[in-house]
Amino acid sequence: MLVHPQFDPVAVSLGPLDIHWYGLTYLVAFVGGWALARLRTSRPDSPVNAEQLGDLLFYMALGVILGGRFGYVLFYHFERFLAEPLWLIQIWEGGMSFHGGLIGVLAAMLMFARRIGTGFFNIADFIAPVIPVGLGLGRIGNFINGELWGRPTSPELPWAMVFPQAGDALPRHPSQLYQFALEGVLLFVVLWWFSARPRPRMAVSGVFLAGYGVLRSVAEFYREPDAHLGFVLLDWMTMGQVLSAPMIVAGVILLFLAYRQGRFA
Question: What is the pLDDT of residue 144?
């Protein structure tokens, strides 16, 4: 049985400035996403050229940060926000919602698509294959912070881990690493392979939505529900599963429409 290493959340201190591991994971995610997206700009069907890519990623960075934080507060900790309004901007403590970040990114992509005069799904299909890089690195940040730990499991499980932050000595699933493997690595491989050849417009976006929704829902069976929320539906569904269900439905609909219409960018 393993014990969480209790990493110092501060990676580097520069005088009064503390650089947190959580922030560094986001920085690496944006740099990695930029490098992969730049490869995609060389494709003949790319709606974005290399010069426009920086602007697109700037829009998306704002969408991720603002949407992710607002979503986390709205979906998971609204009462704390009402009690401590300034907690909203304390991102370095951790606390970002993928579903909120997705809403922010969708808004950012819509604005960018209008700016350059292309269709929304042209941008969405272009960027979807690189998003799992950020998702995976975000889960590494969760693991470093020792947050969002898994449900109790058998101590005989070789990788069962005690998280002292949980306030007990129970062996638990390191669910952050499960999500890294599923939402980060596996989803990236599927999307990168699927988008390697031309697909009908909306198809890549559909695979992303449905794929993430399914993989997140699976991982939630191993992740401890938020203590203040518990199971929010049917006595077994977590908030993450409830929020992922519409994504699965939307992804299936997009795939159906994409192959029925057969339109390419």
Answer: 93
Q: Angle at Cα 136 formed by Cα 168 and Cα 34, nearest 5°? A: 150
State the maximum Cα–Cα separation within the chain, in Å, rounded to a whole number. Answer: 59
34, 26 contact by CB (below 8 A):
no
pLDDT band, residue 3 (cuts 50/70/90) = very high
* Strand order across the beta sheet in which 2-3 lies: 2-3, 161-162, 171-172
Q: How confident is the model at residue 210 (pLDDT cuts 50, 70, 90)?
A: very high
Name the pTM for this structure: 0.88
What is the torsional sign of CA 5, 166, 186, 55? negative
State how far the Cα of 134 lies from the Cα of 180, in Å rounded to an integer. Answer: 10
Q: What is the dihedral of CA 77, 79, 80, 83, to 10 degrees?
A: 160
Which DSSP string do the residues of 16-72 spell out, in sequence order? TEEEEHHHHHHHHHHHHHHHHHHHHHTSTT-SS-HHHHHHHHHHHHHHHHHHHHHHH
Q: How many residues does the chain have?
A: 265
What pLDDT digit, counting tens, does each position of 218-252 carry? 999 999 998 777 888 888 899 899 989 999 999 99
Res. 208: pLDDT tops 80: yes
22: Cβ contacts below 8 Å, ≥ 6 apart = 9, 91, 92, 94, 141, 144, 145
Q: What share of residues in the chain are helix, strand, coil (percent, to 5)?
A: 65, 10, 30
Q: Whole-angstrom Cα distance, residue 119 to residue 127?
A: 13
CA dihedral 175, 181, 182, 188 (to 10 degrees): 150
In whole angstroms, give the CA distance from residue 115 to residue 128: 19
